[in-house]
Amino acid sequence: MDKFMQAAIDEAKLGLAEGGIPIGSVLVHNGEIIGRGHNKRVQSGSPILHGEMDALENAGRQPARVYKESTLYTTLSPCSMCSGTILLYGIPKVVIGENQTFMGEESLLTSRGVNAQVLHNQECITLMNDFIRDKPELWNEDIGE
Amino acid sequence: MDKFMQAAIDEAKLGLAEGGIPIGSVLVHNGEIIGRGHNKRVQSGSPILHGEMDALENAGRQPARVYKESTLYTTLSPCSMCSGTILLYGIPKVVIGENQTFMGEESLLTSRGVNAQVLHNQECITLMNDFIRDKPELWNEDIGE
User: Fold this and answer.
1) Which Pfam families match (chains A, B) (predicted)?
2) In terms of CB atoms within 10 Å, which end of chain A has fewer, N or C?
């Protein structure tokens, strides 16, 4: 298992333990994690802190160059908000745990030149399947449905 | 002047007075402002709190129905992050102060059925022109350049 995807999964599990939505993300630059995050809808009452957004927020203000040399790891296919953020900052590569329980804007990312790699990771799939089964209303809220 | 665009401009000016980037936004539902915000890059050290994102964050968790009945007012053409967020939540209409100093993802929004109306408001244009002239590095950071 890629250690960075493992770190994203650890974030997802941390979110679940907090009563939240189990999606985690890490931003990696030069082989180091510069931001970790997980979905904070429940914990912070936030409609914008998806896992990817929380990782970027926790990385803080970075020069444009850093984003353009970084890879974002996320346990779930990034939605249009998170994909738009990847495009804003020109993050060139996204490693995605799975896209079976939710297909985000991978086509948009790819069409704009982002390298989107999907791992089809079983642990990520199970985390989301269990969560969607247990709290469907919360999941629908998170994806605007 | 539309009172909701005026409220967005007031937010932009508040941000400027705080030493921040002068972009403001309000989310309007059923003729009432349910969230106000302005860019907080400087004030909160945040790479994700653009004006639109801050307005949504301040509106808090809303049912999907509310977003789908709302209009987002923003002083500047929404970047890919903010446009992706508009798409995530299915906000059907965006009223934009100006797109002369920065052209966001209006084409993407329109292609997905969002009604994007541009006011070409001179006060919004002047706010941004003055800001970009005075703090070009800060502005470039905000748009990932």
Assistant:
1) dCMP_cyt_deam_1 (PF00383)
2) N
Q: What is the pLDDT of residues A33-48, one digit of tens each?
A: 999 999 999 999 999 9
Q: Which DSSP symbol is given to B26?
A: E
Q: Is B68 exposed, middle or buried (0-12, 13-18, 19+ CB in 10 A)?
A: middle
| Largest pairwise CA distance in chain A | 41
| Contacts of B112 by beta carbon, 8 Å cutoff, 6+ apart | B87
Residues of chain B neighbouring A29 (CB-CB closer than 8 A):
none
**Domain B3-140 class?**
alpha beta
Q: Residue B67: list chain A partners with CB under 8 A.
A: 144
pLDDT at position B106 is: 98
Three-state SS string over chain A comes to: CCHHHHHHHHHHHHHHHCCCCCCEEEEEECCEEEEEEECCHHHHCCCCCCHHHHHHHHHCCCCHHHHHCEEEEEEECCCHHHHHHHHHHCCCEEEEEECCCCCCCHHHHHHCCCEEEECCCHHHHHHHHHHHHHCHHHHHHHCCC
Query: What phi and psi values does residue A110 have, to the nearest 5 degrees?
Result: -65, -40
Query: DSSP letters of B88-139?
Result: HHT--EEEEEE-SS---SHHHHHHTT-EEEE---HHHHHHHHHHHHH-HHHH
Give chain B's residues under pLDDT 50: none
Cβ-based interface (< 8 Å): residues of B facing A:
41, 45-48, 53, 56-57, 59-64, 67, 79-85, 87-90, 105, 108, 140-141, 143-145
Active site annotation includes B52: yes
Contact A88 B81 (CB under 8 A): yes
ipTM summary value: 0.97
Query: Partners of B36 in the beta sheet?
Result: B26
DSSP reduced 3-state for B71: strand
